[in-house]
Structures are given as structure tokens and as C-alpha cells.
Amino acid sequence: MVIVSDRALSIENACVNVLPWVTRGICYYHLQQNIIKTYGGKELMYLVKGAAYAHTLAEYNRCMDSLRAAHPELAAYMELADPKLWSRVHFPGDRYNIKTSNIAESINSAIKKAKGFPIPSLLQFIREMLGRWFYKRREDALSLQTPYSKGVEYILAIREHYAQ
């Protein structure tokens, strides 16, 4: 199991104390936002991204060497952030192509109203929200006249129109 998040100390502590078997990583999007805010280094983000997504140690070292030459403070920040947490080549778990936690960000946005709820109430809120979503999808599916989704039907209708 892998948990990818921002650099919040509370999440790090929870991973260490509650889920010690998981591998923790830093979300590249949040790391990028911190770098831009702190160092204003938009023009150097291609080097940061290159180091983060490098598939080989040589590629990672080349990007980091270029970053050290161009902006030593930013390179030091990246190394202080622990490359095992943000670099694909150093990551000890199965990071695959995780750039950001889009699914987690979407769920966070959807449950924003319930953020301060006690855990049982939060779980009830999530259960009801998912129930509404699945109910709507089921109703949409039952209303279809063909085996295709409304999106596919729309595309087919456009293609049929232009084919005539």
C-alpha cells in the first residue's frame, strides 16, 4: 500500500504510527506548488520534473546536477525533502506513474462540507454521497434506449450526421 500526500507532518506521523507497513510518498503537484511559492522557480521546473520522473539513476543525477548548478538552494530543498518520497527512481514502493492524488483530491473536494465531522458522521456522509452517485448512474443507465452510454450515443449521432 502506498500513501501519496503533501508534506504535512500529521500525515507522516499517522503513516509511521498507525500504518507502519505502508510506503509514503510526496505528491509531485504539492511539491511543485511549494517550490513555485518558495523559490519562484517556474523556469527550472523541467529539471525538478525530470528528476522526479527519471527512470534511471543516471537520468536523475543529470537533472539534479543541472539543478544544483542553476539553483543550489532549490536543489538542497529537494534533497532535504528526501528523494525516496518524491523521486520515482528512489521510491521504495510501487509508485507507477502517480503524479498527483487526483482521486483523493476529488473526494476531498466532494466531502469538504463534512471535514469537521466526527468519524462516524463523516463515514455516514460519504456513504450517502456515494449512494446518491450510484443511484443517479443506475437511473441514467436504465433510461438508455441502446446498450451505449449517452456520451457514446452523442458521438455516434455526430458521426452519423457528418457521414450523410
TrEMBL record:
Domain of life: Eukaryota
Protein name: MULE transposase domain-containing protein
Organism: Microthlaspi erraticum
